[in-house]
Inverse folding.
C-alpha cells in the first residue's frame, strides 16, 4: 500500500525564545513526550491499556514514525510529517469493544492521536473518556514541564482536518484534576465466560452479567492453557484498570481457574470512586444544594475517613 503522509505544524509562541529557533533540549523533550503520548494512545486503541507491559510488538516503532521536516520563523514553527497507520499497522485487532476505533485508525497518525488525547481530556461533555486511562493522563500532565513561562503557548495543527490544539501552562491544572479523578489500579476477582480473541495468544474477553471486559493474560503458563477455558465459565484474578468515570475497563489477568458455584459471588464487575467522584455524584443528585457551603471550614480537620464519608452521604 502506498504510504500516505500527513503534515503538521507546531508553533511555539514565546518571549523567551528567539524567533525561528528552539533549544535542542526542548526539541528532545518535545519529541519524547509526543512519542510517549502517541504510543499510549495507540496501545489503548489496540488492546485497552496505554502502558501494556512485556515484549514490544515489532510493528510499533514503524507505526510511531514522526519526522521533523523543518523549522521556520513565525514565532518558531516546526514542520512535522507522519504516515497514516494504514501503511504501518496491518492485520492487527484493535480494542474489541470499540469497532468505530478500527474504522478510524487507518486514517490516523501518531500526531493525530497526540492531539486527540488532549482534546478528549479537555472535553467536559465526554463523561466516558474511553480512550484515556490513568497512565496516559499522567503522560499528558507531565508535558507541562515543557513550558518555561505562563505566557508560552504551543499551537498544533494538521492544516484543517482536526481542530487546532492550543496548550498553555495553565491548561494542565485541568489535566491534574482529571488524573486525580481516575481510580488507581487495584486487585480484582471476576467471574464470567472466556472468549479468546483472534490474532493473539493472550487477549481475551470476559462475558459477565454486567457486560464484557477486555483482558490480557500476563502469566505465560495460562497463555498456553487458555484454549482449555474457551467458552467456559471461569474465575480470573488480576489487576483492574478503571475509566475516568470509575468503571472497570481492562484487566491484567494473572491467574485463571475453572469457576465453581462459590465463585458466583465474585461475578459483579467492581466500581471504584475517588472522593472527587463521590462529591460530583452527590451534587448531581441535589443540584440546588451547594456542597461547598456544607463542608467549608469543616474539612480537612479532625474527622476520620469514616466521618468524612458519612458527611458526603448526607450532602
Amino acid at each position: 500500500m502506498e504510504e500516505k503522509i500527513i503534515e503538521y505544524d507546531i508553533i511555539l509562541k514565546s518571549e523567551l525564545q528567539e524567533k525561528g529557533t528552539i533549544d535542542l533540549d526542548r526539541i528532545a523533550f518535545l519529541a519524547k513526550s509526543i512519542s510517549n503520548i502517541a504510543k499510549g494512545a495507540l496501545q489503548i486503541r489496540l488492546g485497552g491499556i496505554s502502558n501494556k507491559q512485556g515484549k514490544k510488538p515489532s510493528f510499533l516503532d514503524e507505526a510511531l514514525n514522526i519526522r521533523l521536516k523543518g523549522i521556520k520563523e513565525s514565532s518558531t514553527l516546526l514542520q512535522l510529517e507522519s504516515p497514516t497507520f494504514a501503511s504501518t499497522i496491518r492485520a492487527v485487532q484493535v480494542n474489541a469493544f470499540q469497532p468505530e476505533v478500527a474504522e478510524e485508525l487507518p486514517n490516523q497518525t501518531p500526531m493525530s492521536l497526540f492531539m486527540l488525547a488532549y482534546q478528549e481530556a479537555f472535553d467536559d461533555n465526554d463523561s466516558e473518556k474511553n480512550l484515556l486511562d490513568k497512565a496516559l493522563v499522567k503522560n499528558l500532565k507531565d508535558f507541562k514541564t515543557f513550558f518555561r513561562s505562563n505566557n508560552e503557548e504551543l499551537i498544533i495543527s494538521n492544516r484543517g482536518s482536526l481542530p487546532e490544539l492550543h496548550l498553555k501552562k495553565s491548561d494542565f491544572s485541568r489535566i491534574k484534576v482529571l488524573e486525580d479523578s481516575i481510580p488507581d489500579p487495584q486487585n480484582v476477582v471476576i467471574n464470567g465466560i472466556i472468549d479468546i480473541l483472534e490474532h493473539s495468544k493472550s487477549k481475551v474477553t470476559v462475558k459477565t452479567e454486567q457486560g464484557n471486559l477486555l483482558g490480557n493474560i500476563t502469566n505465560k503458563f495460562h497463555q498456553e492453557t487458555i484454549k482449555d477455558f474457551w467458552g467456559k465459565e471461569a474465575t480470573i484474578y488480576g489487576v483492574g484498570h478503571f475509566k475516568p468515570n470509575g468503571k472497570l475497563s481492562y484487566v491484567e489477568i494473572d491467574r485463571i481457574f475453572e469457576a465453581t458455584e462459590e465463585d458466583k459471588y465474585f461475578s459483579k464487575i467492581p466500581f471504584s470512586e475517588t472522593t472527587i467522584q463521590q462529591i460530583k455524584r452527590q451534587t448531581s443528585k441535589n443540584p440546588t444544594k451547594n456542597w461547598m457551603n456544607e463542608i467549608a471550614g469543616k474539612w480537612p480537620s479532625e474527622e476520620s475517613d469514616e466521618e468524612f464519608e458519612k458527611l458526603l452521604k448526607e450532602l
Observations:
- The CA atoms of residues 69 and 176 lie 33 Å apart.
- Confidence is low (pLDDT under 50) at residues 291-301.
- The chain has ten helices and ten strands.
